[in-house]
Give the backbone structure.
Amino acid sequence: MKKILLIQGMCFFYGVSFGQEIYKASVNNSETSKFLKSNTEILIPVSRQEITLNSAPTNDDVYIDFVGTGDIQKALNNGDNFNANTGLGVIFERYAGIRKVAQSFELEGTINIASTADTLGGKFSTLNKSRITNSRDFGTYILNPISSKQALYINSNLYFGYPHKDKSEEEEDDLEAVAKEKWTEKSHFSKFSTIVSGINVRVIASNSVWKYSADSIRNISALLFRAGVFHEFVPDNFRLTDEHRSKYSITVGCNYSLRRVLGDISAPSNDGIRNRILGTEQRAYQGIEANFGLRLYNLRAEFQMPVLTAKGSEVAGLTNTPFIFSVRFVGGFALKISKAK
């Protein structure tokens, strides 16, 4: 537990230090108006952001990409009202330097909004009208609560750097110099960061409606939380572009993992419905999770193996170490943002 709290504390400290800087962007419209010709590249850089207001000055490389569905761009252009079903996301990257303890920070966040939530209904056995035959569908939703309607997705990576052994010596941010550095010249933290490349934190939350019967319909809010360390196989001088943006990645990680049932269905008065659907009244499921991820620019692929525990009865689709496979594009339609006047 102390290790888990230490990992969460480090993630919170670095996340707050990077996220506190609220900025006013100076954007070049001629750059943001260039759409990619290939359909596979669906994320367009908004351009480098200069931190000018309400934050301490920095020399770090900072980038922000706002992405969303096509109806958002139309509303921005025409001044129309937003559609009831829409989504908005942001890709944030900050590069501090290869010699810093916190080399870089990446944050991807998306929010989907809809007037209604997804509905998941129970299917019953023809021989036993009280026994649900698709309980695995409910467990799978808790395992990976992804939704295209009412949902939040946040994924962040903090990459460690390689501080020099001689603290008094100031070196330029030279990736090649770090690559040529001998093992005996590395600081203790540099040796550590060679093995443990960084920290990953992920949060997924969504709303749904569970229908057990015509008289037993309950709202559910499912939460996924994951925090842990990872090893990056791609060297930094290959992983990053000349502008210090991530382009390639091959990672393997080990994480603390949590699934939590919230909302109306988590109330004590609904313990019976949860028990009939899941086979248990348990609300929280935690354990460890191993993952393997690939990245090629905007394309992400990941394999996850969560080992979650249940008190008493096992939950189909949630416990017993189910595998999660996912392939997705980062972003949607890049939003063109006008320069502040």
